[in-house]
Write a structure and sequence with these properties.
With 363 residues, the chain is an alpha+beta fold. The protein has one domain. The chain contains six helices and 17 strands. Strands 3, 4, 5, 6, 9, 10, 11, 12 and 13 form a nine-stranded antiparallel β-sheet that branches. Strands 8-7-14-15-16-17 form a six-stranded antiparallel β-sheet. The longest helix is centred in the middle third of the chain and has 17 residues. The chain is elongated, with a radius of gyration of 23 Å.
Length: 363
């Protein structure tokens, strides 16, 4: 279940690609020159190497006792590992004798090689076999089938997780906290999700171009120029072309790897590498402050094995002005990576802190 660089020196943004002229200002050159990534990027003026997104050959199905390890690296150094073990749930009335027991991957252990990364990643609590079985038999089965028997309808539950891009651990934690019946919780889970709105940012005097968008879909970077990036400007003038002197911004590079450790083989099921880039420090001729003209996600690698579906989305939250009259916008920029297969679904979120004056910082 989890979605080189060549500098264009001293040229106006419009020279990068004619179709992007309404997004990138010639007035911002030479200080706000973007580097063009010739691999995976979410802007339309960059290319996409289809070879990296081709599915690989089918591998053996995991068996109980096999493991899968999620490794997250930052700038080439491991900062986090999570070991999932494949377990077999008891057969139920909903399964015939000819069907093999259902195998599913459950989180067993987490290791933080950098303790400072713990807050960034938003840790989740593991779900035991017994907790999952009790939930399926006592809540999920009746919700799906309408009959409260000894069935568990695990396949339908995994499909629900895949459809809504949420990990089992996150779903279970939210369900337990809600205290709601499963039908009500499942129905309104994503409708009640707190999402920032343009009106909410208006109270800060800032204009945020976009609050949420897809950056990776089925393992392929999204190349839609109208929805590939965001900006944070003054609400009094949200026209990017009136902001000058921006500087390039670039985050740490994160790499997500899932290593399948099966009885007769081991391999990397997914290998996704990305960073957040953009511009900051832009000034306006009549409005005080420093602003963020562009911010987007750039993928350097999306190597995804057969049977895995990797998606990713970006979002903006906690918009504020931290400098009063001398405006300095601050936002949290979140990149949410999700991987799903027929027998597992997990997700993790990397959070960046971005300010108009200092650019991209660690949270």
């Amino acid at each position: 279940m989890i979605r080189i660089a060549t500098a264009i020196a001293k040229k106006p943004y419009t020279s990068l690609h004619k179709e992007n002229s309404k997004m990138l200002s010639p007035k911002m050159a030479p200080h706000a020159v973007l580097s063009v990534v010739l691999g995976f990027t979410v802007l339309a003026f960059a290319g996409c190497d289809d070879n990296n997104t081709q599915p690989k050959q089918q591998n053996p199905a995991p068996q109980p006792g096999d493991t899968a390890t999620l490794v997250i690296e930052r700038n080439g150094t491991p900062v986090y590992e999570a070991v999932h073990e494949y377990v077999s749930l008891p057969e139920s009335e909903s399964r015939t004798a000819e069907q093999s027991p259902t195998v599913i991957a459950l989180l067993k252990t987490e290791t933080y090689h950098d303790e400072g990364f713990r807050e960034n990643l938003h840790p989740v609590d593991p779900v035991t076999e017994q907790e999952l079985t009790d939930f399926l038999v006592n809540h999920w089965d009746a919700h799906v089938s309408g009959i409260d028997d000894d069935g568990h309808n695990l396949e339908a539950f995994l499909q629900f997780l895949r459809d809504h891009s949420i990990s089992m651990e996150q779903f279970m934690a939210m369900f337990q906290r809600s205290g709601k019946p499963i039908a009500e919780f499942a129905n309104d889970l994503f409708h009640t999700r707190a999402v920032a709105t343009r009106e909410e940012s208006g109270s800060t005097g800032l204009a945020v171009a976009k609050f949420a968008w897809d950056v990776l879909k089925d393992g392929k970077p999204q190349l839609n120029t109208d929805g590939a990036l965001t900006s944070v400007l003054n609400a009094a003038d949200s026209n990017w072309s009136n902001y000058w002197n921006a500087q390039n911004a670039e985050s740490d590079t994160y790499r997500f790897i899932i290593k399948e450790n099966l009885m007769f083989t081991s391999y990397n099921a997914i290998d996704v590498q990305f960073k957040v880039v953009g511009t900051y420090g832009a000034t306006h001729p009549t409005l005080s402050g420093h602003y963020i003209p562009s911010l987007y996600v750039k993928f350097a690698k999306t190597d995804i094995n057969w049977g895995h579906t990797v998606d990713a989305d970006a979002s903006v939250s906690n918009v504020s002005n931290i400098a009063g009259a001398d405006v300095n916008p601050q936002i949290d920029f979140l990149v949410h990576i999700k991987d799903s297969t027929l027998i597992q679904c997990w997700d993790r979120t990397i959070t960046y802190r971005v300010t108009g004056k200092d650019g991209i910082k660690k949270l």
